[in-house]
């Protein structure tokens, strides 16, 4: 984790505040890719997850504020995914939508 990320916290949708955890981004992107376009290519799905996570970490570390809303992070993930692979960006949004629906029930 980059030093500037140590002080960052995330405001979740339910209002809870948690410490920054890059692994959550990597896991979500990997799951979206492996359940979508790269179903039979886990190494490629992992590569995309790693690359997107690194770019998002850099962008978030450069923000001047310490509390980041989850939507800000999710929007940045989608933006970076669109640069890497538009199909995985679509898969990620579908995955997050499904996850949000499951959390509400």
From TrEMBL:
InterPro entries: ATP-cone_dom. The keyword Nucleotide-binding applies. Pfam families: ATP-cone. Residues 8-103 form the ATP-cone domain. Keywords: ATP-binding, Nucleotide-binding. This is Ribonucleotide reductase. GO terms for molecular function: ATP binding. It comes from Lactococcus taiwanensis. It comes from the Bacteria.
């Amino acid at each position: 984790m980059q030093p500037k990320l140590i002080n960052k916290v995330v405001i979740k949708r339910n209002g809870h505040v948690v410490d920054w955890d890059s692994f959550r981004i990597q896991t979500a992107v990997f799951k979206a890719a492996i359940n979508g376009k790269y179903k039979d290519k886990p190494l490629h799905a992992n590569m995309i997850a790693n690359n997107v996570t690194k770019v998002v970490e850099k962008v978030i570390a450069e923000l001047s504020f310490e509390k980041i809303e989850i939507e800000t992070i999710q929007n940045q993930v989608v933006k970076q995914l669109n640069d890497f692979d538009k199909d995985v960006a679509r898969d990620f949004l579908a995955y997050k939508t499904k996850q949000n629906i499951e959390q509400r029930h």
